[in-house]
Design brief:
Elements: H1 3-16, E1 24-29, H2 34-47, E2 54-62, H3 71-80, E3 84-88, H4 91-98, H5 105-122, E4 127-129, H6 134-148, E5 157-160, E6 165-168, H7 176-185, H8 202-216, H9 220-229
Parallel strand pairs: 1-2, 1-4, 2-3, 4-6
Antiparallel strand pairs: 5-6
Helix pairs in contact: 1-2, 2-7, 6-8, 6-9
GO molecular function, one term: transferase activity
Keywords: Transferase
Protein name: tRNA(Ile)-lysidine/2-thiocytidine synthase N-terminal domain-containing protein
Length: 244
C-alpha cells in the first residue's frame, strides 16, 4: 500500500466520524507492531494537510518483556519529529509470575489501556489513537457473536468520561493485508515483545475463522463490515458520508 492510499483511508475515517477537531492533541499508542507504526505514519502524514490543525505525540507502555528494545521506534519518532514517551510497567511480571494467569489477554489489555490512558493525560493529550484496522473490527464482532451472543464491535470514536479522553480508530477502513504491504514497502522498524500466549488466543481463532469464511465465500469480509457500519450498534457515533 502506498502512503497516499493510507492517508486517503485515514482521512475518510477522520471525516466520516468527526475524529479530529481543531486544536486536538492526539497521542498514538505504539505497541511496536506493524499496525501502530502504520498509524503513526498515517497521522503524521495527515497532520501536514488536514484542515483542522492538531498536535501529535506517541507513547508506548513497556509491559516488561525481555529484549524489548524500543530504540528503533525512538529513532523513527525523532526522524518524524514526534514527541515520544515510554512508560515502564510490571504488567508481564504481574500476569505471568505473580498471578500466573492461564488466560491473561483480557486483564493484560485492561492494565495496558489503563497505563496508556494515564500517560496520555499526563502528556496533555485530549485524544488517543488506537491502531485497530478493518479486520480487527470484524473479528471483534465475530467474538462477540460467538462468545457473548450479541452483535457488537468497538466504536470508531469513544468518549471516556471518567478520563475526559476520547479514543479514535483512524485505520478502521484499512485491511490488514494492506497494513502488511505498507510495513514491507516502507520497512517499518517493527519491535514486538514475545508474549507466551501469542498465537493461541480467541482473537487468533477469530482471525483464522474470518480468513476461512472469506476464502470459501468471497466477499464475506466486506459484507460483514458493511453490516457493522449499518447495524446501528449501541455507542457508535453518527456517520457522515464523505462526498469528496
Amino acid at each position: 500500500m502506498q502512503l497516499q492510499r493510507l492517508l486517503s483511508y485515514t482521512r475518510k475515517a477522520a471525516d466520516e466520524y468527526s475524529m479530529i477537531q481543531e486544536g486536538d492533541h492526539i497521542a498514538v499508542g505504539i505497541s511496536g507492531g506493524k499496525d501502530s507504526l502504520t498509524l503513526l505514519y498515517a497521522l503524521h502524514g495527515l497532520k501536514r494537510f488536514y484542515p483542522r490543525k492538531f498536535d501529535l505525540s506517541a507513547v508506548t507502555v513497556d509491559l516488561g518483556f525481555a529484549d524489548f528494545n524500543l530504540e528503533p521506534i525512538q529513532n523513527l519518532c525523532r526522524e518524524l519529529e514526534v514527541p515520544y514517551k515510554i512508560v515502564k510497567s510490571d504488567i508481564y511480571d504481574i500476569l505471568f509470575n505473580v498471578r500466573q494467569e492461564s488466560n491473561p489477554c483480557s486483564l493484560c489489555a485492561k492494565m495496558r489501556k489503563g497505563a496508556l490512558n494515564e500517560a496520555v493525560k499526563e502528556m496533555g493529550c485530549n485524544k488517543v489513537a488506537y491502531a485497530h484496522h478493518k479486520d480487527d473490527i470484524i473479528e471483534t464482532m465475530l467474538l462477540s457473536l460467538i462468545f457473548e451472543g450479541r452483535f457488537y464491535s468497538f466504536s470508531p470514536k469513544t468518549y471516556l468520561d471518567r478520563m475526559d479522553l476520547t479514543v479514535i480508530r483512524p485505520m478502521m477502513f484499512i485491511d490488514e493485508m494492506e497494513v502488511i504491504g505498507f510495513r514491507n514497502k516502507y520497512s517499518l522498524p517493527v519491535v514486538k515483545g514475545k508474549c507466551p500466549v501469542d498465537g493461541h488466543t480467541k482473537r487468533q481463532y477469530a482471525k483464522e475463522l474470518l480468513r476461512e469464511l472469506n476464502k470459501e465465500h468471497p466477499g464475506t469480509k466486506e459484507r460483514m463490515f458493511h453490516a457493522i457500519l449499518t447495524g446501528d450498534i449501541k455507542g457508535w457515533p453518527q456517520r457522515t458520508i464523505s462526498r469528496r
